[in-house]
Amino acid sequence: MIAEPATTAVDLAEITRIELIVVRRLRERMAGEHRSWSEGTGFDFVGVRDWQPGDRLSAIDWPQSSLNNYAPLVVREFDQPGAATVMAVADLSTSTRCGAARMDGATRRETPVSTAVTRALAVLGLSAAFFQDRFGLVAFEHDFTHLSGIGARTGRNHVVHCIDAYLSRRGLEPVMHGAAVSTTLAGSLRTTSLVPFISDFLFDDAEAVVKELALLNATHDVFVVMVDASFAFEMPDVSSAWIEVEDAETGRTRTVSRRGLAAMADRVREWQASVERLARDADLDVVRVGLDARADELALSAFVAERRLRRPTR
């Protein structure tokens, strides 16, 4: 198992590739008879605010900014009557920065769990941009004591900003913590929102979190994006009878047998399957993602399209 170093930049070529797939897939899904995803003929002006990374230059209110000597810049904010809000809740635990290291010919390739999380964020965010919906991010640690995020806004640049903030762990603002996970997330949502919860669920209180998501689902549209992390636990054969392993979250070490090490991937699959059953029993839809990028992107974009058309925006 390897730990991924902090990433400081988004792979824009990968984002563009995902965007082309999402747009083509959504246009195919939107063909035919369906209700329009837009209402009215334009946008409503809702006010001005300070410029933030991801804002378009065309949104800058130059006369208003001049009153502040352009420090900070001020942007105009608009809202479309038919726009919805997609607030992605993504796992930022240290375990997601771990994964598998494999040799591809002479090249050593490292695939952390966060790769699947980032890809899911890109598909969800670019799908929201296609529908001209607002997209935001809430990131959580394994024990949910530290949450941070970025407010929901429209546009592709904002989606890229959210992905960069997730990868680099910079630019995320603290989120006020409530008495429970459901109240904490609800406090970040101003209107009825689509809330994808993206995680590998490799934490102790997964059942309690699923119950909290079910409570949140009573007022918002919540679904689970389950990241299949079993590939990160498919360990190579070792000759030692006993192996010392370390928990990436707590730093605690434990000695396991060679047989126990070989069975770790199966145990992860069993655990995630049990969490998926709990989620479905709680009336939460579950979408699985893993290492198959193309299949995951097509399945998730199609799921979001159906969800967006089925649910009202207000």
Name of the CATH architecture of the largest domain: 3-Layer(aba) Sandwich
Number of domains: 2
- % residues in beta strands: 25-35%
Order of the strands making up the biggest sheet: 9-8-7-4-10-11-14
Helix content: 25-40%
Calculate Rg over CA atoms.
21 Å
Spans of at least 5 consecutive residues whose pLDDT stays below 50 are 1-8, 33-41
| Annotated CATH homologous superfamily of the largest domain | von Willebrand factor, type A domain
Task: Report mean pLDDT, rounded to a whole number.
Answer: 80
Q: What's the topology here?
A:
Blueprint: E1 2-3, H1 12-30, E2 44-50, H2 62-66, E3 74-79, E4 85-91, E5 98-104, E6 107-112, H3 114-130, E7 134-140, E8 147-153, H4 156-168, E9 173-174, H5 181-186, E10 193-199, H6 206-216, E11 221-227, E12 242-246, E13 253-257, H7 258-262, H8 264-281, E14 285-289, H9 293-310
Parallel strand pairs: 4-7, 4-10, 10-11, 11-14
Antiparallel strand pairs: 1-5, 2-3, 5-6, 7-8, 8-9, 12-13
Helix pairs in contact: 1-3, 1-9, 3-4, 3-9
Give an overview in words.
This protein is α/β, with parallel strands linked by helices and 314 residues long. The model is unreliable at 1-8 and 33-41 (pLDDT under 50). The protein has two domains: 2-42 and 83-310, Rossmann fold (3-Layer(aba) Sandwich), CATH 3.40.50.410; 43-79, no CATH class. The strands form four sheets. A seven-stranded mixed β-sheet has the order 9-8-7-4-10-11-14, sandwiched between helices. A three-stranded antiparallel β-sheet has the order 1-5-6. The protein contains nine helices and 14 strands. The protein has helices spanning 12-30, 62-66, 114-130, 156-168, 181-186, 206-216, 258-262, 264-281, 293-310; strands spanning 2-3, 44-50, 74-79, 85-91, 98-104, 107-112, 134-140, 147-153, 173-174, 193-199, 221-227, 242-246, 253-257, 285-289. A hairpin with a 6-residue loop joins β7 (134-140) and β8 (147-153).
